[in-house]
Amino acid sequence: MDGFLVIIWDQLACDRERVYALSCRVNPGNSSSEEVYMKSLIVAVLVAAFAFTLSAQEKKAPGEHSMTGCLQKGSAPNSYMLDNVEGNGPKTIGVVSSAANLAPHVGHKIEVTGVAVPATEAETDKSVPKAPHYMKLSGIKMVSTTCP
């Protein structure tokens, strides 16, 4: 495959006015500065396109994030919610699931880490408290034993 790419690059570099023409012959031992420039340009464009595609894919995947607020017991058994959430985002979070035991932290100010859950998915479980934002928690950290 490497040899194929070199041949394509050599053919592209042979005619700088018509880059799309792939029919000319290039002497592999004769490398001009125009050929080097053209090859460098093509490599730079390919690297930029790859980086852009990679960053676009990363944005689509749901990412872990952290939020801080007061842990409260929900109305259903073993259900929890975070209220008085700090920041500009939602002020209440419905906890869909948690890897950590939340019961000892009710009434505490905690920082939760996890991934967002779409409302349509979270609201199918009637035990999850209604909220504008839902999360599956992967971890918690106690900030304070009291809440404001």
Summarize the structure.
By secondary structure, the chain is an alpha+beta fold. It has helices at residues 2-13, 33-60, 119-122, and strands spanning 64-73, 80-83, 92-98, 109-117, 133-144.
Describe the structure.
With 148 residues, this protein is an alpha+beta fold. The protein folds into two domains: 2-60, no CATH class; 64-144, OB fold (Dihydrolipoamide Acetyltransferase, E2P) (Beta Barrel), CATH 2.40.50. Helix content is 30%, strand content 28%. It is built from three helices and five strands; from the N terminus they run H-H-E-E-E-E-H-E. It has a five-stranded mixed barrel with strand order 1-2-3-5-4. The termini are far apart. Mean pLDDT is 78; it is low at 1-7 and 19-26.
